[in-house]
Amino acid sequence: MMNKSANKKEEYHETPGKETSSNDILELLHRFNDDGNPKYQTIIAELHDFFRLTLSETIDVVDIRELECDNEKVAKFRELMPRMLSNCRELTQRKSYIPFESEVSENDQKQKKFQLLHQHQIVLNFQEFCNELTKLVIDAHVLRFLSKCNSSYDVMSKHWTSFYKLFEYVIGALGPIISYVHVNYPMIRKELGFKNLTVYQYYDSKLFESIKTSLGKDFPALVTASIHHYIHMFPITNIVLEGEVPMLRIMSSCNFNLESLSPKDFYMRTLKDYFDKEPNLGPKLETFKNFKVLLTRNALLASLFFPEWVSDANDLFISHLLLNKKSISEYIEIGKNTYDEEKERYFKTETCFSLLMFKNAFEARNMLSEFKEFCDDAISEKLKAAYGPNHDVGRLFDEVVQLANVDHLKIYSDSIEYHLCDLLSSTSRAIEQYVKYFESLLLKLVKKIKMEKAELSRDMKLKYLYDNLPILKLKFVNLPTFSNFFERSIFRKTILQCDQNSTFIKDILPVYKDCLMELFKERIITNVSQEDEMRYRDQYQPYLSQFFQPSEVMADLRIKYASFLSFYDNIQAVVEFGKKYNENNHTSFFPLVFDKEGIPKAFQQPNDELERNFVLPEEMDHIWNEFLSNYYRENKVEGSDASKKELYPMWNLHHCEVESPYITPDGGNLIFELTLFQTCVLVLFNDSDHWTLESISERTKLAYKDLTLILKSFLNYKVLTKDTDNSYRINENFKPDFRKVKNGKLRVVLPRNAPSQSSNTGNGRSSSTHREGSNSQWTQELLKACITRSVKSERDGLGYDHLFETVKQQIKGFSVGEFKDALTKLLRDKFIIKDESTDTYKY
């Protein structure tokens, strides 16, 4: 048998020819022997018999290994081959004449003449004869193979390698004959265009032509099934694949296209369809954890078909699992749903996969802008879905906290913060809402401990709170003003819930200093644990700088949080004073005495005419005066700090609980939670059934504008009704909305459209609006947000005047001084920088 490898470098080009039958072959034989020479007739018959012998000896073979080991058959072919090669030489070197009609005159008789046939035509005819005989052998084997597999593509794919190895044996047995022209007539080979395929590649293409003719339009389905045969093979290793001869490899080698696609393009299309439809290759935890293993397997499969396809196949795999928004969004979702509370880590099973792999994949393809865009879109969609049409702030922050915790390397933290602040209108609003969210969860956790874990020690309770309280890992947490929002909130809760029996006073306030401060100190200021720092330092060194603040900013923050700690100490001392007073005096009055420096500036109110003229109800006035006497009597030691202080009543911050005659479902009396001014108005109705605005103002000395607001709050809750003569009376048909009643208490909230503190009457009284905050802080935060947004949108920066005008177009009602102050703070905190060379501000 002829060794195929010896001729692999030779190339062969298919010659045009027509499909022929057995009769056509006999006609071809006669053309070789047009003069009826018995010698050539015998030679041609011997060649024909050799092809028939090859077919008969191989057509029923099941195991190619048995055929290769059949020494008798091998010897038979080996003995006949010299004779066959001699026949090839005789047929290609013979002389042959063809008749032609000579041109003669009308009077002359036509004479039959002969012309010598050119040798290259004889050789071409011989090659055509060999091709047709070989085609008959190929067609017979293909039909046998298809019938044996019952036309099942899966069975064909499974047995393809053994069939092709049999085909190689057959072509190898015929090799010396069918390659005779190719080897011995190089000039003719060039003339025929033998430059694209080797002899064996040529007959490989004839094999696929035969299969395609038999299967028709279903042929691509067979090729697809053959690809899936290897895709689903398990386990798949180099050793397993070593003996495989995939169909697509042979098709690629002989440049056999299908559906107008090259073998490579067809493979890539099939692979993409598989990635899109295969559920086990969707974006999920197991897929991402085993990403490198799957990528290696994908490369191994591509190399099985053609080594040059590995890069494109892996690009396709990476594109499917990494280079798209859906995968990024799904990966983030996976992280949210696989939080390990014990390890405080996302992904319950350790894996080296992270969003950094996504980023690196995009960056390696110069697609970093698309990565940022996909992350931004994914975060935006998740936050909008959480916020919803009902503007569910609690659900929004649940989502934000989870998203921030998944993002260990702060890859998309800017997007979270931007879209959070955008949904809530401003940075200051976002901070305020986060404070409320944080404290509501703290309250729930404390109640849960009280109900389910009462046996825990104080240290264990603190640890439980520490492990379960959510932390927002965003930049605005490190704003110097962040602690101010907590101070205002806790101060407000203290004055609203200053009842020694309240959960807030008994359970929540004592843990604030220990629990909240530890969270701030360890998990916000440093932003990353020591364990995470060591784990990521080597692999993610370029990204570690994102975890830490500049030293000067850190120093400022530590000062702020030290002040925060002092603030809580002051709150606890004030509450302890109120408890002690209650225990000694057995009164419902719970006094909170602060140093002026201990009251957030937003709650401080100047001493105006209201404070001097305001009239307390008689029973309240008695309690207040009694408290003053006791306080000064107990702190009259000469030279003490307390003796030098003057108590100043901040009436706008006083709150009262008023017991009503209405009965709650649990059988108790409904309690109204009111401001002091609301209380003073409501208790007047104990003395009279109806009051006018003028008469209420005369009794309380409150401004008309503030009284209108207070009365409106009672009208909104249907506690009072308004008569046609503009007088007010108690609503005898009042039924409280028990959805708003908590622990038997109903808080009557003042309307939000509170007028500014000015008088609209001619009596010169100042407004007594119940203020619990100041607009100055909000203006400052809003200015900072607008400045940052304006600078961020201009790559080349903005000059001072241009920046001022840009901000002025976005918000109104701020002074130049407020603008400069906000700009200075942003520069100090390094949120923006000033380019001295161009005198512009940049992000």
Automatic annotation (TrEMBL):
Stretch list, region Disordered: 1-20, 751-777
Biased composition annotated in UniProt, kind: Low complexity: 756-767
Gene3D superfamilies named in the record: Cullin, Chain C, Domain 2
A Pfam cross-reference name: Cullin_AB
Record's protein name: RTT101-like protein
Segments traversing the membrane: 166-183
Alphabetic keyword roster: Membrane, Transmembrane, Transmembrane helix
PROSITE patterns registered for this protein in UniProt: CULLIN_2 (PS50069)
Family: Belongs to the cullin family.
Domain Cullin family profile as annotated: residue spans: 429-715
Stretches with biased composition (Basic and acidic residues): 7-17
Gene that produces this protein: YJL047C
Keyword Flavoprotein: no
InterPro entries given in the database record: Cullin-like_AB, Cullin_homology, Cullin_homology_sf, Cullin_neddylation_domain
